[in-house]
Amino acid sequence: MRSVQALALAAARRTPWRNGRGFTDELALEPHGSSLERGDFHWRISRAQVAENGAFSSFPGCERILVLLDGGALSLDHGEHGRRTRVRTLEPYRFSGHWPTHALLLGEPANDFNVIYRPELVRADVEVLRVGTRRARLSLDASIAFLHLPRGCAVARVTGEEEALRLASGDSLSMSKLAPGDELDVQGERDDTLALLVRIDSMSPDSRTP
Prior knowledge:
Jelly Rolls, 6-stranded antiparallel β-sheet, 2 domains, mainly beta
């Protein structure tokens, strides 16, 4: 049975970075009972602030998607795994969690949105939606979806759900056990309304690497 739940940013679990250089607000993590510390999670969605130059925490076996929400641009150096990359605001950037990654701030501290997942178990993507005061109807096309509002406010409703849920800045909408054809209707209520939609699907046994 489909599950739809509104989540306030104040309810997020605050955790220290593995490298001890900052904190992360953990918005969602699965499966239930797993943890970042034990490394037994399948995927994790979070927010954090990069306030100084330094190395990112290492997540061997994971893939990452990083979205800068505001603040200055960020330059990431992956050493031998690729050239230095300038990450721009609201442009999702993918990289491997096991790559050594050093961050260089190109201006003021930057707030970011992170998805970390194990590619042998799930696939994930992030869509940035500049909603404003428009209405958007989105195909979920996944078994799990997660909507986060970094700023603004909106009313959201999933196909077949009687109740529409109002989301304020920092709130999220967690959706699981979705069916094919399910859609999300989002009506923005402020000019600055911005939303991030994460789609997550389990990898089928046939698609996993032997």
